[in-house]
Design goal:
329 residues; alpha/beta; Rossmann fold; eight-stranded mixed beta sheet; 13 helices; 47% helix; binds NADP nicotinamide-adenine-dinucleotide phosphate
């Protein structure tokens, strides 16, 4: 396959990581590939369910989706904050079709209740976006004793996806998007150490392990689902200036912020919204995206070697056993 000069330049940017993940990435790629502006898409009549729509990338993405006319449901945990976000987005966009469902995604009972509520209110869901996530510098446990990063970013998306499959299939095809992180490039696929033990806990590593699992599970859902019914994609947003980053990684914000190297939340949300709106997302399934292009899921031989069929099988079994959701053909 011969590559165009612009594609070669894109790959050079990607291989060197810093230009790719920072604000340089979207600025260069927007021009290289003549990106269609998001405001040229129309999502009228499309139901989009988005987790983590009350801050950062998710809040910005919610506003863009609302501007495109989507019927948007934000799944979030804090009633006062969520109501304020929904009111603000309705006022800013003039779109009245914005609602919310309350759920703390670190609690499986909440996830189950939210899925039931969503399924009743929305028999057809065109896109489900798993955007909620967090890096916990100090180890935190969910109510059920599981590491909170794993419960929030691995178990909750698995359960919500599984319970909403009929509504996604009704969209024929529905789309499931999972916001991972470029941090996952640093971590192998590990099931026995998916939850780091207390004595060797490292927040960034724990986060990256959960993010690696999200990418692998996206591929596994895609292998198990007819793409004419539902397609699955994961993506990473680069390094984005959000409350999540300034709280969890203040040093990172202090260094990259003044250099204007962190992406704006708009640029952080771009590929998430684009995958919701563009037909390109329906042409494949199980891919990992960054800046509107499919990217490799490994940059290191060690992580590639860790990603074995046997570990994948154990990860899927872990999710099924942990959530009680079993996929039946
Ligand atoms: N910013 C980056 O550079 C970057 C890089 C790579 C990947 N990401 C990923 O992008 C996604 C968004 O990140 P962000 O930077 O925009 O973070 P953020 O500003 O901290 O927003 C995170 C969102 O997740 C929600 N959330 C967290 N825990 C939750 C829980 N237990 N139940 C329900 N909702 C919960 C938050 O709700 P509240 O508003 O209630 O707190 C908030 O809406 C995350 O998955 C993150 O890992 C971000």
């Amino acid at each position: 396959m011969s590559l165009s000069p612009n594609s070669i330049l894109d790959r050079v940017i990607e291989a060197t990581i810093i230009p790719s993940f920072t604000s340089i990435g979207p600025n260069a790629r927007r021009k290289l590939f003549d990106w269609k502006p998001l405001d040229e898409y129309d999502l009228t009549g499309q139901t989009v369910v988005l987790t983590g729509g009350t801050s950062g990338i998710g809040e910005e993405g919610a506003e863009i989706l609302a501007n495109l006319g989507a019927t948007l449901v934000i799944v979030a945990r804090d009633q006062v904050k969520t109501e304020a976000t929904v009111d603000r987005i309705k006022a800013a966009t003039g779109n009245p079709e914005i609602s919310y469902v309350l759920a703390d995604l670190g609690k499986q009972d909440d996830v189950r209740a939210a899925a039931t509520q969503l399924a009743v209110a929305h028999p057809t869901i065109h896109t489900l976006i798993h955007n909620a996530g967090a890096l916990f510098p100090k180890r935190r446990l969910a109510e059920n004793g599981t590491d909170l990063a794993v419960e929030l970013m691995v178990a909750a998306p698995f359960l919500l996806t599984g319970m909403l499959l009929p509504q996604l299939k009704a969209a024929g095809p529905g789309r499931v998007l999972t916001m991972s992180s470029g941090g996952m490039y640093s971590q192998p696929l590990s099931v026995s150490q998916l939850e780091m033990p207390e004595d060797s806990y490292n927040g960034a590593q724990q986060y990256a392990r959960a993010k690696r699992a999200q990418v692998v599970l996206t591929e596994m859902w895609a292998q198990r689902t007819d793409p004419s019914q539902v397609v699955f994609h994961s993506l990473h947003p680069g390094w984005v200036d959000t409350p999540g980053v300034s709280e969890a990684l203040p040093g990172f914000s202090k260094i990259l912020g003044p250099l204007h190297l962190l992406r704006s939340p708009q640029d952080g949300a771009d590929t998430m919204v684009w995958l919701t709106a563009d037909p390109a997302a329906l042409e494949s399934t199980g891919d990992f995206w960054h800046d509107r292009q499919v990217r490799s899921t490994h940059k290191l031989p060690t992580t590639r070697n860790s990603d074995t069929p046997e570990r994948r099988k154990r990860l899927w079994e872990w999710c099924q056993n942990h959530t009680g959701f079993e996929l039946r053909k």
